[in-house]
């Protein structure tokens, strides 16, 4: 798969483009993550992503105000069972731990992120 970030317009041009860039299950390098954050990208994170060491390391550095939860369900599966929206609770618990926040604060961050996306 070809890298995505080099294909996106330079950050200086993004003000001219009316869209939100959400990187689903971002799996780039720490350097690419820093560039994506600088470019104003958002990130969708699910419990499956947070099971791996790399996914956890990336999520730890994602800005909480630009992270939303997702499941990949019903196409994603764990132990042969389709993932469901309830799996987002697992992601919230993991994100709270990574960000050094309580679960209620993390839920508020995620909810506010969703609300912000609706406003954009």
Radius of gyration: 14 Å
Strand tally: 5
Total domain count: 1
How much of the sequence lies in strands comes to 5-15%
Helix content: 40-55%
Q: What structural category arises from helix and sheet content?
A: alpha/beta
Q: Tell me the name of the CATH homologous superfamily.
A: Metal-dependent hydrolases
Principal-axes geometry comes out as: globular
Order of helices and strands: HEHEHEEEHH
Second-tier CATH architecture: Alpha-Beta Barrel
Going across the major beta sheet, what is the strand order? 1-2-3
Give the terminus-to-terminus CA distance.
29 Å
Q: Please give the CATH class.
A: Alpha Beta
Q: What's the total helix number? A: 5
> Overall mean pLDDT score?
85
Task: Specify the biggest β-sheet.
Answer: 3 strands, parallel
Low-confidence stretches: none
Oligomer: single chain
Fill in the CATH topology.
TIM Barrel
Describe the SSE topology.
Elements: H1 11-14, E1 22-24, H2 30-38, E2 42-45, H3 53-60, E3 67-69, E4 77-78, E5 81-82, H4 88-99, H5 103-119
Parallel strand pairs: 1-2, 2-3
Antiparallel strand pairs: 4-5
Write up this protein:
With about 120 residues, this protein is an alpha/beta fold. The chain has helices at about 10-15, 30-40, 55-60, 90-100, 105-120; strands spanning about 20-25, 40-45, 65-70, 75-80, 80. The chain has a single domain (about 20-70, about 80-120), classed as Alpha-Beta Barrel (TIM Barrel), CATH 3.20.20. The strands form 2 sheets. A 3-stranded parallel beta sheet has the order 1-2-3. It has a two-stranded antiparallel ribbon with strand order 4-5. Helix 2 (about 30-40) links the parallel strand 1 (about 20-25) and strand 2 (about 40-45). Helix 3 (about 55-60) crosses helix 4 and helix 4 (about 90-100) crosses helix 5 (about 105-120). The mean pLDDT is about 85.
